Prior knowledge:
The chain is of the alpha+beta class.
Amino acid sequence: REIGIKFCITTPNFRDKKMFGKTFEMAQELFSSLPIINDEQVDALAGACFEVDRVPLVTPNGTVSKDHSFLYRPDSDAILGTVGNRYEVVDNVDVLVPAMNSILNSGLDLTDLKVNVSLGNGGASTFVTVDLPAHTVQMGRKVGDIGRMALKIINSYDGSLRATLVTFVSRYWCTNGCMVNGSAESGFIKHTSQANVPNLVNNLKTSLELFKNSEGIYEVMADTPLPMAKAWQFMNLFLGKSWRDCQRDEFALSYENEDKLRENSSASYIWEQHRTKYVPELGNNCFAFYNALTDWATHKDTRSSAEGNRPVVEWRRHQDVDRFTRNRHFLDELSKVA
């Protein structure tokens, strides 16, 4: 595979080679034209922008694939992924500049705005978090548990993630990140059609509405009792068991089944956080279980082999938590007190 890559890159005037993206300096100039953000934030955003070559996939014996090609990052000599011929590269600059411009001109309170940039797999995926601490919500019923609004802009060169604008809540008390329910579906760009960035950024009003409404959802979670036996059923539901299996005696909460759970490091982490940290702090309720899930999504370590891809791992986990909180069995439990 490495031989094939070198063949593509070093062959002069290869007719199918295509270049995408902007250099750091070009991106820096574009971000500098935006209002409010400072030089440090400009450099952080520009650091997520680089040129990408689309080069034919060539096997070691010299056969050129008709259906797939490599995405290659020349400044770091990194292969970002293998994509099909219908794949449309969505450049970071083409997503981040209009998204940031829309946020900065949205009318949102930008006091103490912060920007954080994370790259996964050497730049194959990009996560830009815009922290908006002037917008806050109360998290559950615990005094002082305040969440601040954050907008996460996501893109990938390799097609593993759709270009998306997502609303998050960043916690002060426990530092857990929480995806606001439904926000991931409110705007995204596919990589198999012409990019439509305006559709991505036009949902900022929806983002603010979802953020404000989340306060009521967290209060309902905090008011919904969740005995440990029921929490165990939800634990199994989160792990993928059917609701019917979750209610069977053989899968009920027991010392034996807790021992089996420890074989799964993620499941064990969630259950221990729920049982030993969040129930004592918040009580036996759905909000305690939700906190255990978001703790896992935000803080659980990854395998050493996946550490370079941690931003993507965290994002996938938050998607799992979001899907669970929209599961009808969890919502049925909340509806008992809503």
